[in-house]
Amino acid sequence: PRDFIWDDTLPFDFAGHGTHVAGTVGQLTNNGMGVAGVAFNVKLMPVKVVDSEWDFIFDSPFIGTDDTVARGLRYAADNGAHVINLSLGRDGDPAPVVQSALQYAVSRGAFVAVAGGNEGAGGNTPERFAEIAPQIEGLVSVAATGRDRRRATYSTVGSHIEVTAPGGDF
Fold it and tell me: Under 8 Å CB-to-CB from 3, ≥6 apart: which residues?
């Protein structure tokens, strides 16, 4: 594990999103809870690159800049990550430092899933890393479906989206 916001090896997810995604992937099966992860025998490497309001309140030494995201991507690739989930929000042009880190990660054998965005109901603005996904082999942009198997109301759509999968609806 690595936390680039607090510069330590104890990534604490104040926002809960990373923990939620990790649970979707790695929940145990046959646990009597009625849920199972999609890869329940997986090893997870938590790498925190985005700060939240609570990190700010607790006075974290660093924030989630593009450079922080790039360093986290390179760290994960250098430490054996086979799959990297990049479900973070950024708009505007793709930062060259992150684009380079994404290319580096896939060159090291990692498959990278990039969130398409959560602006489906508010302008449908795509996340900037999702827009470049079709240009980099090994990088895929994803969108979400709801329980009704249709686009989740929040999920961004567009020609840059390559895969959709259940993501809930709220």
Answer: 9, 10, 11, 12, 47, 48
Euclidean distance between CA atoms 167 and 146, whole angstroms: 6
39's tokens: 């890869």
Strand partners of residue 63? none
**Beta carbons within 10 angstroms of residue 14's beta carbon:** 18
111-133 pLDDT, tens per residue?
A: 999 988 777 777 777 777 888 88
Confidence band of 101 (pLDDT split at 50, 70, 90)? very high
User: Which of 166, 108, 170 has its CA nearest to residue 142?
Assistant: 166
Whole-number pLDDT of residue 88: 82
Structure tokens at 107: 């060159």
Hey, what's the torsion of the CAs at 68, 72, 75, 81, to 10 degrees?
-170
Q: Report how far residue 165's alpha carbon sits from residue 152's, in angstroms, rounded to the nearest whole number.
A: 10
The full DSSP string for 83-131 is: EEEE-----SSPPHHHHHHHHHHHHTT-EEEEE--S-TTTT-PPPHHHH
The pLDDT tens digits of the residues spanning 147-158 come to: 888 888 888 888
Question: What is the pTM assigned to this prediction?
Answer: 0.88
Tell me the C-alpha distance between 107 and 36, whole Å: 31
